[in-house]
Design a protein that fits this description.
The chain is about 45% helix and about 20% strand. It has 16 helices and 14 strands.
Length: about 400
C-alpha cells in the first residue's frame, strides 16, 4: 500500500476498474474545471490554513476517541468510539462540506446543490452555505423528508431550499437523480457538492481527502491512549464517506482489520429488503461512475431498504469496491433489528444516542467484541441520533 494516496485514483479517476466519469460532455468539462481547481487550490497555503482554522475554531476538531467502559465490561473486548457525533452539526459530513464550499468560494460559484438521505449531509451543506454566504438547494426523497423531519427543519432554518424527490422509491437514489438534473441546468454558477465518496471523478477522491482527517486524528489519539494500534476498525457503509475517512488512517497497517458494515435491512433473502451492495452487488455504472452496485438483470439499479436513510443506496464508493476486491476491507451486514438494538444499547449503557447509520457499526462491533474478547475495537461513530428519535420510538417503541 506504499504511496497509496498518490496511486489511487489515477489521473482519470479510477481505483483499478472502478470510478471514472461517465457523464455528458458538457458536464464533463465542468468536472475537469473542478478537478483542476481542486489540485491548484488544495495544495495552496491559503486554502489549507483556512480549512484548518475552520476545523479547529468552527467545527470543534479534533473530535475525541472515547473508551466505552460499560459496553466493554458487558460484551468483552476493549471498545472505543471515534466521536464524529461531536463534530459541529452532529456528524462527519461537515468535514467535506466545508471543504467543498471553500472550493466553491474560490471558484466563484454562487450556489451549492446536493442530495441528502438522512439529512446530515443536507444540514452540513446548508451550514457551510450559511458560513460562506452562498445559496443552497438540497434534494431529498419524500419518504426521507417525512422520516427525518428534524433535519428538514434544520436545513430550512439555515436558509436552504429543500426540494422533494417524488419519483421512484422517493429515497436517496431519487434524491441524487433530482440533484443531478438541477445541476445540469446551470453548472457554471452552481456546484454539485456530492455527499459521499461517490459520483464522477473528482468527487470520490475529494470527499475522501477531506474526510481523511478522521483517520489521521483517530490513529494518533488511539496510540496516545493505548500505545498501539487498534486490532479492528469498523464503520458503516452506504456511499462510504465516514468509512473511507477512518480507514484511510490504517490502510498501511496490515495488522489492523478493517470492517465496513452495510444494511442487512429486514432480510437478506429478497431484493428490495436490504442495501447489502457488497454482499450481492456486481460491477456497473450508476450516477456517473463505476462501482459494485445492486442491479437487476437489465443493469438497472435495484430497489433497496434500510432503517437508516443515509445508507439506502444501491451503489457504493469506487474506492470501497476496489478495497473489497483487494481483500483489504471485509464488508458485512447488520440487520434493522440488530441496528435498533444497538441504538438503544449504546444509549442506555454509555449515554450516547447514535445515528441509525452509525448504529450499524455499533451492532457489528458488539458482536465482534463478544467473539474476540481480547481485542481492541475502534468504531467510527459517524453521527448522533437526534434526527432518528421520533422515527425509532414511533416505529419500534421503547425497550422494556
Amino acid at each position: 500500500m506504499a504511496n497509496y494516496f498518490k496511486t489511487y485514483p489515477n489521473h482519470e479517476g479510477f481505483f483499478e476498474e472502478y470510478g471514472g466519469s461517465f457523464i455528458p460532455p458538457d458536464l464533463q468539462e465542468e468536472m475537469h474545471r473542478i478537478n483542476d481547481a481542486y489540485f491548484a487550490i488544495s495544495k495552496s497555503h491559503k486554502f489549507i490554513s483556512e480549512l484548518r482554522s475552520i476545523r479547529k475554531h468552527y467545527q470543534g476538531r479534533p473530535t475525541p476517541v472515547y473508551y466505552c467502559n460499560r459496553l466493554s465490561e458487558k460484551y468483552g473486548g476493549r471498545i472505543y468510539l471515534k466521536r464524529e457525533d461531536l463534530n459541529h452539526t452532529g456528524a462527519h459530513k461537515l468535514n467535506h462540506c466545508m471543504g467543498e464550499a471553500l472550493l466553491a468560494k474560490y471558484m466563484g460559484k454562487k450556489k451549492l446543490i446536493a442530495e441528502t438521505g438522512a439529512g446530515q449531509h443536507g444540514v452540513a451543506l446548508a451550514t457551510a452555505a450559511a458560513y460562506f454566504g452562498l445559496e443552497c438547494e438540497i434534494h431529498m426523497g419524500e419518504v426521507d423528508i417525512k422520516k427525518e423531519h428534524p433535519n428538514v427543519m434544520r436545513m430550512k432554518i439555515l436558509g436552504a431550499t429543500v426540494v422533494p424527490a417524488s419519483h421512484g422509491l422517493k429515497t436517496l437514489k431519487e434524491a441524487v437523480d433530482s440533484a443531478f438534473e438541477a445541476y445540469l441546468k446551470d453548472p457554471i454558477n452552481t456546484i454539485y457538492c456530492i455527499g459521499s465518496v461517490v459520483g464522477p471523478h473528482p468527487f470520490p477522491m475529494m470527499v475522501r481527502d477531506f474526510q481523511r482527517v478522521i483517520g489521521i486524528e483517530a490513529k494518533e489519539q488511539f496510540y496516545e491512549i493505548t500505545g498501539e494500534n487498534p486490532d479492528a476498525v469498523m464503520a458503516c457503509v452506504g456511499g462510504g464517506s465516514n468509512a473511507m475517512g477512518i480507514f484511510s488512517g490504517f490502510l498501511d497497517d496490515d495488522n489492523v482489520e478493517l470492517f465496513g458494515i452495510e444494511p442487512g435491512g429486514r432480510t437478506l433473502d429478497a431484493i428490495g429488503e436490504h442495501a447489502a451492495t457488497m454482499t450481492f452487488g456486481t460491477p456497473g455504472v450508476i450516477h456517473g461512475f463505476r462501482c459494485i452496485t445492486l442491479q437487476d438483470e437489465n443493469g438497472v439499479p435495484a430497489p433497496v431498504h434500510s432503517v437508516a436513510s443515509g445508507l439506502d443506496y444501491p451503489g457504493v464508493g469506487p474506492e470501497h469496491s476496489m478495497l473489497k476486491d483487494k481483500g483489504r476491507v471485509e464488508y458485512t451486514t447488520a440487520s434493522d433489528k440488530e441496528t435498533v438494538d444497538a441504538f438503544y444499547e449504546l444509549s442506555r449503557m454509555e449515554g450516547i444516542i447514535p445515528a441509525l447509520e452509525s448504529a450499524h457499526a455499533v451492532a457489528f462491533g458488539l458482536k465482534y467484541a463478544t467473539e474476540n474478547p481480547k481485542k481492541s475495537i475502534l468504531i467510527n461513530l459517524s453521527g448522533r441520533g437526534d434526527k432518528d428519535l421520533d422515527y425509532v420510538v414511533d416505529t419500534f417503541g421503547l425497550p422494556k
